[in-house]
């Protein structure tokens, strides 16, 4: 009777003396005398038509690759085969041409796919089940070895890839209490040199000490509290500042059948942060200078306007003089409007004052804003339409900011629309969101203008149709205010057919419905 315990003892003895690829060779070599076989092959399947001879006890073999079709045919329904009058096909002649008795065992695993094949020149003395049992045991060893090799290779790849990057990387596997860090993380967290697999305790101490050294520790701890309470937390723009450096910290959970944990990435952004601070300081100085200049210009313009308004009182003016004064007053008004826009935009850019929200009856507010433009629309024979497809709603937002947004959008629609066209102010509820759209029939927005649409002081290719003024700040203000209100802005435009600006408020901004009735279109 075959002694499988003895085979296992020999395998264990091999494991005490051999490592790496030599271990696989020693297993196969031990199987030969155990089964009284003459040859043993370990064959790894690469694809349907190609297999590599991973190991062979046949010193005369020269082939490195074979066609595995015949092995596939023999192991279609079972993992084991034993052929007592084996006739190899041409693809296997060099491997098994001199062996009349051949047995094989199919290995199917994500780590290794292939066959163990043994051959005898004389009929084996063991039963098919004993041979299958022996090959099965060797197959287990092959799979374990392969998995070990793959793990070693993967670990080496990790060490190389993460070892050369300047960022500090920490990988925590909570499921198995295994951690991995790269050399940059060792230095950052003050861990023991060379210990790329630190214990959870030492890693926690290193992370805590790093947090405690930060100048903005309180802000960091607030975000850390959110991370602790939310296993799916992903950090965004998490900055840790220190006296000597600034770190941008990114962390994200990793969940898979084989891994449950979190990855941390610490990126040194000191130089970038300092440059950003310098640019911010310089930008603030420029904004303050613009604001001062704007205020200083407002006073003389107001004085000139007063003088123009006083001139008709001195004596009668002819038509040319009256026209010149009116033109001057219009020019001054444009200048004052530009100054107001500059001052207002600077206040948005340089201050972070919270908005004052309240419940707004949306229909009443829109009616009020549209009414203020009726005279301007009348001058250009433009029809202003209000369209609603929902019951009256209460919008919880900042009315001053919303009025300014609508003022800018409706004003632009009227400025750029030709005479005799229509401008539509539409409100609708879609998927629990409120959408306020301003639609015109103007020249549309070209692709080149799209990229600079919301940038300040940008002059687009389209021009006002009645010599109206434009500060180049209106859409920048709309964009900033929209974001402050927690809404988004969408743009749809077709050249020569018109443009639609749409402000979308999320469902949380809607307080309640007032009435189930739906107002008719105006």
Automatic annotation (TrEMBL):
<keyword id="KW-0902">Two-component regulatory system</keyword>
<dbReference type="InterPro" id="IPR036890">
    <property type="entry name" value="HATPase_C_sf"/>
</dbReference>
<dbReference type="InterPro" id="IPR005467">
    <property type="entry name" value="His_kinase_dom"/>
</dbReference>
<dbReference type="GO" id="GO:0005886">
    <property type="term" value="C:plasma membrane"/>
</dbReference>
<keyword id="KW-0808">Transferase</keyword>
<dbReference type="GO" id="GO:0016036">
    <property type="term" value="P:cellular response to phosphate starvation"/>
</dbReference>
<dbReference type="GO" id="GO:0000155">
    <property type="term" value="F:phosphorelay sensor kinase activity"/>
</dbReference>
<protein>
    <recommendedName>
        <fullName>histidine kinase</fullName>
        <ecNumber>2.7.13.3</ecNumber>
    </recommendedName>
</protein>
<dbReference type="InterPro" id="IPR003594">
    <property type="entry name" value="HATPase_dom"/>
</dbReference>
<dbReference type="Pfam" id="PF02518">
    <property type="entry name" value="HATPase_c"/>
</dbReference>
<keyword id="KW-0597">Phosphoprotein</keyword>
<dbReference type="InterPro" id="IPR003661">
    <property type="entry name" value="HisK_dim/P_dom"/>
</dbReference>
<dbReference type="InterPro" id="IPR004358">
    <property type="entry name" value="Sig_transdc_His_kin-like_C"/>
</dbReference>
<dbReference type="InterPro" id="IPR036097">
    <property type="entry name" value="HisK_dim/P_sf"/>
</dbReference>
<dbReference type="GO" id="GO:0004721">
    <property type="term" value="F:phosphoprotein phosphatase activity"/>
</dbReference>
<dbReference type="InterPro" id="IPR050351">
    <property type="entry name" value="BphY/WalK/GraS-like"/>
</dbReference>
<dbReference type="Pfam" id="PF00512">
    <property type="entry name" value="HisKA"/>
</dbReference>
<feature type="domain" description="Histidine kinase">
    <location>
        <begin position="292"/>
        <end position="509"/>
    </location>
</feature>
<keyword id="KW-0418">Kinase</keyword>
């Amino acid at each position: 009777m075959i002694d499988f315990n003895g085979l296992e003892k020999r395998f264990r003895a091999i494991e005490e003396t051999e490592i790496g690829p030599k271990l696989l060779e020693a297993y196969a070599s031990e199987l030969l005398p155990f089964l009284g076989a003459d040859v043993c092959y370990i064959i790894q399947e690469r694809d349907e038509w190609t297999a590599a001879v991973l190991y062979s006890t046949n010193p005369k073999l020269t082939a490195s690759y074979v066609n595995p079709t015949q092995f596939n045919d023999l192991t279609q329904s079972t993992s084991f085969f034993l052929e007592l009058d084996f006739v190899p096909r041409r693809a296997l002649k060099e491997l098994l041409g001199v062996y009349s008795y051949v047995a094989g065992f199919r290995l199917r695993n994500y780590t290794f796919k292939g066959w163990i094949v043994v051959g005898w020149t004389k009929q084996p003395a063991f039963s098919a089940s004993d041979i299958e049992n022996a090959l099965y045991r060797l197959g287990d060893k092959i799979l374990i070895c392969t998995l070990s090799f793959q793990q070693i290779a993967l670990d080496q790849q990790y060490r190389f890839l993460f070892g050369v990057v300047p960022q500090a990387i920490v990988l925590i596997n909570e499921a198995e209490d295994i951690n991995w860090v790269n050399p940059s993380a060792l230095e950052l967290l003050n861990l023991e040199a060379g210990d790329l697999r630190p214990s959870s305790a030492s890693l926690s101490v290193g992370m805590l000490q790093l947090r405690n050294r930060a100048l903005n520790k309180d802000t960091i701890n607030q975000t850390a509290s959110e991370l602790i309470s939310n296993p799916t937390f992903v950090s965004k723009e998490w900055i840790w500042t220190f006296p000597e450096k600034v770190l941008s910290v990114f962390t994200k959970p990793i969940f898979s059948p084989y891994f449950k944990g979190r990855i941390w990435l610490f990126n040194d952004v000191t130089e970038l942060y300092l440059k950003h601070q310098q640019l911010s300081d310089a930008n603030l100085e420029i904004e303050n200078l613009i604001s001062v200049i704007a205020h200083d210009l407002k006073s003389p313009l107001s004085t000139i306007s007063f003088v123009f308004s006083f001139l008709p009182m001195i004596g009668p003016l002819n038509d040319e003089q009256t026209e010149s004064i009116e033109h001057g007053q219009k020019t001054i008004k444009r200048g004052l409007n530009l100054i107001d826009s500059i001052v207002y935009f600077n206040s948005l850019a340089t201050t972070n004052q919270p908005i004052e929200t309240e419940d707004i009856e949306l229909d009443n507010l829109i009616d009020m804003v549209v009414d203020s433009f009726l005279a301007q629309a009348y001058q250009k024979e433009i029809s202003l339409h209000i369209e609603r497809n929902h019951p009256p709603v209460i919008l919880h937002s900042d009315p001053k900011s919303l009025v300014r947004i609508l003022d800018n959008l409706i004003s632009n629609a009227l400025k750029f629309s030709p005479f005799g066209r229509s401008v539509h102010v539409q409100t609708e509820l879609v998927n629990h969101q409120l959408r306020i759209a301003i639609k015109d029939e103007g020249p549309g927005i070209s692709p080149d203008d799209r990229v600079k649409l919301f940038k300040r002081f940008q002059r687009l290719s389209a021009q006002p149709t009645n010599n109206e003024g434009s500060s180049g700040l209106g859409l920048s203000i709309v964009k900033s205010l929209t974001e402050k209100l927690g809404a988004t802005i969408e743009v749809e435009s077709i050249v020569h057919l018109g443009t639609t600006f749409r402000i979308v408020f999320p469902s949380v901004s809607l307080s309640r419905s007032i009435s189930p009735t739906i107002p008719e279109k105006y």
